Amino acid sequence: MPVARDVLSHAAGRPSRLAVCGPEGELTYAQLAGKIDGAARHLRGRGIGPGALVGVALADPVELITAVLAADLAGATPLVGDHAWDRERWDQVTGEHLAARLDTPLPYVPGPPVRTEAGPDDLAWACFSSGSTGRPRAIVRTRASWTGSYPHLGDLTGIGPDDVVLVPGPLVSSLYAFAALHALATGATAVLPGRWPGRSLAGHLARASVVHVVPHRLPDVLRQPGSLRMAVVGGAALAPGSRADAAAAGVRVVSYYGATELSFVAVDTDGGGLRPFPGVRIEVRTGAHGPLGEVWARSPWLAEGYLAGAAGPLRRDDDGWVTVGDLAEPYREGQPLRLRGRGDGAIQTGGATVVPEDVEEVLRNVPGVHDIVVVGLPHPSLGSVVTAVVEAGRAATPQRALLEATARGGLDAAQRPRRWFVVPSLPRNPTGKPARALVAARLAGGDPEIRRLA
Description:
long-chain fatty acid-CoA ligase activity; AMP-bd_C; 27% strand; alpha/beta; ligase; AMP-dep_synth/lig_dom; Rossmann fold; GMP Synthetase, Chain A, domain 3
């Protein structure tokens, strides 16, 4: 069933229940249902219906979620993007596939209820991989692969219609978009500040019973938990001691591992370790990564693939198993899954996934950069911090100010290196490519040839 239909059902049963709260206002379920229905009629009047991909790029999170649900009700496939992206960025992502880009609030069009035949196998949702980069990757999935997991998440967390769910991040992130839509599908109140609320966090937590959050934000939540009973944590591994801190604050933690391409893979409800999410089978295939292996999953929650032929880490085998290259210790059914990072060098930083090659592509054009390698160095709260190692060769060493200016102009915030080093010559593998793993090892070992870039 489309999430929009759930909203209409909640509006019929509890019309005065608060549905969404944002920086510019709030809507009851009756008000939200009316806006969705009227906006869906507007979209159908423009010829936007089943099979159409609709970009949604509104700054206000309440207007954004309304447009997403209107597209859903009309039978189209919503794709949430950053409201600051220009048309060129959208064209990079979607190619010729985009039927419309919604960047202003949709008007209300009166008329009879919108009727759309909706099936579980419809390509009904599209989202960006977390940490979308200079070459954005949009991932397309069926309705069932997105909404079919809702009841399982509800069972694991106890989220229900009487909860107030704080979603403290941008909805362009699939983690936060999923959280918001799950809350509305269950009939809960979704609090959508649209970004990390900063100084207003305490006020939000005073009314919230549930928060969806990435690990490095959990300590901020636990310092002033308010009425919170549950924290749903995804995006990276929990820091040591986080569960004990949460228990002391009276907050239960449910953490999970997944990927935008895979959705949920494993979940830890009590600190006993990651176990397969309902409906998921897991294999760790060893052989190519020394003592570690790649995590492969098979489940109903897998995405169909990337939009516009974009390349990415998603791989499939002939039996329906998929992987994005995450590494883990050898695994046997019944044991906890012990993750150990990404085999392709992707960097997990503060809940975002940064692909090094995308950062390198932008910075390689800076004068004085002969070549460059981007790696992740361990960080106590972010998981890893994006680090650039510049090969200057015989050229003059590039200025850090110029590198940082280029990063600000061409990279999203999560991608921008926070640490900069320079080396006369990068180590390379037999094919001539920089040996990324060796660079990371030399950095960790304090190689004196690699010096900080002032």
